[in-house]
Specification:
This protein is mostly helical. It is built from 26 helices and six strands.
Length: 605
Amino acid sequence: MDHLSNVAIYLTAAVLSVALMKRLGFAAVLGYLVAGVVIGPWVTGLIGEVERARELAEFGVVLLLFVIGLELQPSRLWALRRPIFGMGTAQLLATGTVLALAALAFGLPPALAAVTGLGLAMSSTAFVLQLLAEKGELGSTHGRASFAVLLFQDLAVIPLLAVVPLLASSQAMDGQSAALGVLKVVVVCGLLIALSRVVVRRLFDAVARTEVPEIFTATALLVVIATTLLMQAAGLSATLGAFLAGVLLADSEYRHEIEARVAPFSGLLLGLFFISVGMSANLGLLAREPFAVAGLVAGLMALKFGAMLAVAKAFKVGTKAALKLGAALCQGGEFAFILFGLARTQGLLAEDAADLLTLVVSASMALTPLAYAGAGKLARRLGAAKPAPAFDALGDAEHQVILAGFDRFGQIIGRILRAMRIPFTALESNPEQLALHRRYGHKAYFGDASNLDLLLSAHVDKAKLFIVAIEDVETSLRVCELVRRHFPDIRIFARARDRQHAYRLMDLGVDFIERELYHSSLHMTEQILVALGYRPARAKRAVLTFRGHDEKTLKKSHAFYKDEAKLIQTVKEAADELQTLFEADSGFANLPESAPGVEAEQAAS
């Protein structure tokens, strides 16, 4: 029961604090930090077991790195290569060098000073992306640049997580033993790659065929946990293993579904992670040395802001965007907590120094919303600036078209789009259908398009067209309703199984509806008329006349299609009207000369 009461305290504090921060216009992450401070040992003392909370919360960071790894498709990295590997590298090296020199001045050994400087140079991915998303600025110039820099930082933290244990071991080992440590990293990573290719993908194939969502979720979490346990058993970082597992599954057809299943757990546990950070903030240290802490926080934020501003200008980012970019990334990040915690457990960093750095990073995160608001006001005072050259789009061009359903109907659409070099993301929930198309070289992802988290991970918000080619009527309607409600600006093209399905799609405001057998039936009818002796032009005109009349009737009857009696009456009236149209057209008044039975008809007349 003690554990349940602790959970209740966590949730209550989180809900109240996040609601308050949102009310005041601040990011939700700040609310988690405030909640941690309030329930921690330095304020109310409601939760005294900080270490146990931190152990559970660190799994949120593990899941975050796994999700980040899933996002690192080669195509996306290539599309953002300039801001990621250009601006990201420049920011990390410039800021890390200055901060490492400052750490040297405080008496840290050179290797540890370098790790400390690079750790402080990193910003909070969760904090910044949420801050920008809440303000609707992820698609802006500074939003795209922030994403690129944060992505490079996420990549850079992986070697740092591997280096810290090696630094600790090298203090007690000779050069040969250190080399063996590096070899161990290579061997374990190679084993992980082999297991991913041979075991993990086949495992997901088998689980997908069960068509049980809970089992798929459990399998995704099992892969993350098993990978972290493997890395820990080898004496390496658990977060490194989770990241590599995500990268190895980034080009899998199950990527979107895995991300959609894991993301809720990642978000919840990441919130708990920030609460644990707030709980572990040493407010006694702040009370004893307020000026020293304030000076370090101000120095960290000023150095990071200045370095990012200089890098942004070097890459020809406009002044307004550069100011906002510098303010957005001026705080320390969650990976600093991980690095400093790892360095402390490895005996590289004294506990007092780790507490001080944790407090400084936490305070810098808390002050970031104020710094960002100030940068926004300064940018507005500067007036309109020249628009900066647009970076490559966030994500790649395949996200311009999303195709839900890749069976006999959807794969025709996909083949034509691919032949015309129009990239798209295809989602298919039937693993057997998916396996069949994969054997023929067609690329599609396993996933349920009626899952909002899956659509978000597939970047539907950046797409122009959403094609619903799903055979099942109810699933098709759920997907269309979900997309129309959450992404009202996207155009929806939908496959209808029959007339009733089309009516219900019209209720949802679908832009373009295609009845699946409609055109094939019309085409066959045209060929039948030709076979009966009608001239091709006459047969074509008959089909076009029917099509125009039928589409007009469909739109007319949509208003009362739920009234069966009125609908039946309308259908009968439409049939009579169509017959009248054909009789009034002289081209259809008489049978063709070559039609079967013509002689008998003429004799009878």
